[in-house]
Structure formats: C-alpha cells, structure tokens
C-alpha cells in the first residue's frame, strides 16, 4: 500500500511542471495556457527511505523494493468549476479517487507566465479552489439527501446514518467550512469515508517558489504558511523548476546540484514525508536474502492487518509476528544478532506495528 495524492491548482501555477519532475516523465504537457492537461495523468514514484538500503546491505538482499506513491495530475480548476466552467466536474470527479490533495500555489513572480486571475495571490488562489470544492460538495449533498427521502420514511438504518452525516457536512459547508472540520465518531468513520466528499480530503499546500527562493521561501510562501497553520493544514516550499532540473540528472549529479543550491534534500522527499505525516502513514520492512522490501500502513495498524498488506492469507491465518525494531536490527548486525541479544520479539494479534519494524509473519495456510 502506498497512497494517492491528487495535484490540483489554478492553471499556470506549475502543477504539471512539478508532476513531470516528480514522476520523471513527460506525460503531462507543461505549457503556458490553461487546461494543457486534458486527462488526469497518473505517475508512480518510489518512496525514498535510506533505511531500506542499510537493511539490505546487512541481510545481503539481492533486490531492494521500496514502497510507492502515486501522483495524479488533475487539470487546472477555475472559478465556476463546480458549475461546469472550464473543464468543470470532469476533474472534480477525479479528486474523489485520491487520498489527499496537494494544492500547488504560485508563489513566484514571472511576467512571462500569465496568471488566470491577473495577479499573484496564493491565499486567494487556495480560497478559489476550496470554494469550488465546497460548492461541488454542497450540490452533491443536496441531491443525495433528496434521494434518501423514501428510505428515511421506511426507517432504513443505513439511510438514517448517511443522512445524519450528510446533514453535518452540509451544516459545516454552509457555515463556510470544509467537511473535514466535522468530528466523526469511530462508529461513523467508515460510512463517512464512503460519502467521498471532496472537502474531507486532507490538504497539503505546495508553495511553488522561484529557484533563488527554494531554501528560504519568500513573502508569498510565508502568507501560505500562516494560512495553513490557521487551518491546521501543512505546507511545503518547493521550486518546480529545480525539481525539473534534478529529474534530468544522474543520482550523484543531483546530489551535487542540491548541495550547490543549499538544499539538504530534493522536494520529492519533503513532499512525500509531508504526505505521510498528513495521512498518518508509517513504514515497516520485510528483509531476507531474496529481497528487502518496504510496506506502507497507517499508524496504529494491528499486526494481522499489517500482514494483510502483503497478502490476504497472511491476515486470515495470522499466528504471530517475529519483530525486530529497526535500530536493534542495525545495532545487532541483522536477524541472528538480534535473536542472540534478545531483541527479537514474538508479537500477537493485539500488537500495533511501529514505524521501522522489521517483521516476519507466521501464519496458517
């Protein structure tokens, strides 16, 4: 399991340039005009994790398999998209399929790149997109509640739950708040997710700055940071142009380029890490002579469900998980050393997997 992030933004904010760079493809056409991306482009990237190579070196693994993240480049939205303006609802529908939304905001000045609103104002741009998603949700909610009337008269329990949750979302949106501000009880969590409302998606603001501002950011990105903090959302500062240049270089050349720019790591790494934090994701490993592999789970996942990420049979027949913390695996120079040092634990069904755990699952077939 990785996760899927939809990249959204107004036209000409650097969305497709960023997508191209992150996925190292030319699938998304980056051009200085609106709607140059006509179909949503999907690209997968390996999630960088230096721990994986260290584990593989100790175990003598023949193959290293990182977990993966999917980016979906969704065409530029404009005011009125919820009513079909621009490319409208075709693209709003694509947002329903992603786990999180990255709002790419233009935080650079460039007279050669037109702005669809005629001025550079990232906070206003973010508000435009949020408003369109809220309007689309409101329209969807009203239609769905109208369709539930007959079932509600028949006291259908599922319809009652759905209508109650839709009513709470509607109240939030009518008060100018996205649906994600609604506090949902554990027993309603599954039904709430099934509603697939656009504004329940976690949001990460991506400040696209000029090359010279990639380290420190600028006044525009600071405005976004303040907005994100006020909303309880996250933000990252990235130069799409720099990411584009890095994507064309070999690994060692890219490292030298980053050092020259004063950057500790590529924007991709920061973006993925921010996405993991946003969705409360973590990584565990399986390690052996054949392969060292990373697996993504949500924080607090129980051992059987973590095993199920590999194969459903692992979850159904789960017996126990032989568990070594990452630091112990490294310090003891592998599985055998960890066993001898008493650092391998046998964990049962109630165990909540921790980030960095090296696991070996025992199960009945």
- How many beta strands in the DSSP annotation? 12
Shape: flat
Give the integer mean of the pLDDT values: 86
SSE string, helix = H, strand = E? EHEHEEHEHHHHEHEHHHEEHHEHHEE
Description of the structure:
With 365 residues, the chain is an alpha/beta fold. It is 41% helix and 19% strand. The protein contains 15 helices and 12 strands. It has a 6-stranded mixed sheet with strand order 2-4-1-5-6-7, with helices on both faces. A 3-stranded mixed sheet has the order 3-9-8, with helices on both faces. A 3-stranded antiparallel sheet has the order 11-10-12. Helix 1 packs parallel to helix 9 and helix 4 packs antiparallel against helix 6 (157-174). It is flat.
Task: Based on the model shown, name its key terms.
15 helices
